[in-house]
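Reminder to self: tokens first, then the designed residues, so the page reads top to bottom the way the pipeline ran.
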């Protein structure tokens, strides 16, 4: 049978058990997963199972699933605004469409794996969806779909085209105060288990790094691994790290970074946030690409 699969996952639950204790952390996690499950049912979806701090759900069609996940993010943001910052657990959501097999009350299939993988590697407040899952959702109000190109997902031979669903998170969160975290890898992922190389080029400077070289510091200071001596670039502007099978770019600056992927149709703005690099593209440091004074790095990620 064809279905649209949704995997919603809480970020930070492990830390909550350590910092808040088992009783309070269990209450926090249970309240969120119960609310997510109820929202699934409100949009005619089926809760397949609750996996500790995650919810796997199934919908008969894509538009119902997209309405549900957007409602999840918006209502969860409203709930978090009423609780202390130390107790907030953001969610990340992956959506995929395809054939599934039901075995008892559980389901299996490529779409299940893709939804889980996208959720596992996207960041707080984010929704990533395969292009197939968005069929019929183009006319939904107050939403924008940012095409981020073809993505190879670990364990899958064929890449899939993935979009980010812009559900209005900028109204609810401030990128100036959002802390970057490797638990919150943002945007797309190559997801390859094998080592990767990344080539960085700025003006006449070209350097290639392997995952054995990470972490890589990018900045204006001579202590950086990739030095960019240009106004607007912070002394310690960004960091590249190897995490969960992917190369993760973390912006550390006051003025931000902008990432443009080849094959994508929207720039990804970052300010003290993270983005998983895949394929090839460019990174503007300190100001957007439209600014002639921006320091622009070209990058290319390749398997080792």
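Designed residues (304 positions):
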């Amino acid at each position: 049978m064809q279905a649209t699969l949704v995997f919603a996952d809480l970020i930070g639950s492990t830390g909550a058990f350590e910092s808040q204790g088992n009783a309070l952390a269990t209450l926090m996690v249970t309240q969120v997963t119960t609310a997510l499950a109820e929202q699934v049912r409100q949009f005619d979806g089926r809760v397949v199972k609750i996996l500790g701090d995650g919810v796997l759900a199934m919908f008969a069609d894509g538009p119902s699933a997209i309405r549900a996940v957007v409602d999840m993010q918006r209502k969860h943001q409203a709930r978090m605004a009423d609780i202390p910052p130390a107790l907030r657990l953001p969610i990340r959501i992956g959506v995929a469409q395809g054939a599934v097999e039901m075995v008892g009350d559980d389901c299996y299939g490529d779409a299940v794996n893709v939804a889980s993988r996208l959720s596992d590697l996207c960041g707080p407040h984010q929704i990533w969806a395969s292009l197939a899952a968005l069929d019929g959702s183009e006319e939904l109000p107050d939403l924008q779909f940012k095409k981020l190109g073809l993505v190879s997902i670990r364990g899958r031979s064929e890449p899939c085209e993935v979009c980010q669903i812009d559900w209005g998170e900028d109204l609810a969160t401030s990128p100036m105060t959002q802390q970057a975290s490797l638990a919150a890898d943002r945007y797309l992922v190559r997801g390859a288990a094998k080592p990767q190389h990344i080539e960085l080029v700025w003006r006449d400077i070209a350097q290639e790094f392997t995952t054995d070289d990470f972490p890589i510091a990018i900045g204006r200071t001579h202590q950086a691994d990739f030095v960019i001596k240009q106004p607007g670039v912070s002394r310690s502007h960004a960091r590249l790290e190897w995490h969960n099978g992917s190369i993760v770019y973390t912006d550390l600056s006051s003025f931000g970074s902008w990432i443009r992927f080849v094959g994508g149709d929207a720039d990804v703005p970052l300010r003290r946030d993270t983005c998983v690099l895949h394929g090839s593209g460019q990174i503007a440091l300190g100001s957007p690409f439209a600014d002639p004074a921006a320091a622009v790095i070209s990058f290319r990620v390749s398997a080792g």
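Residues 2-173 form a domain with the Alpha-Beta Plaits fold (CATH 3.30.70.1230).
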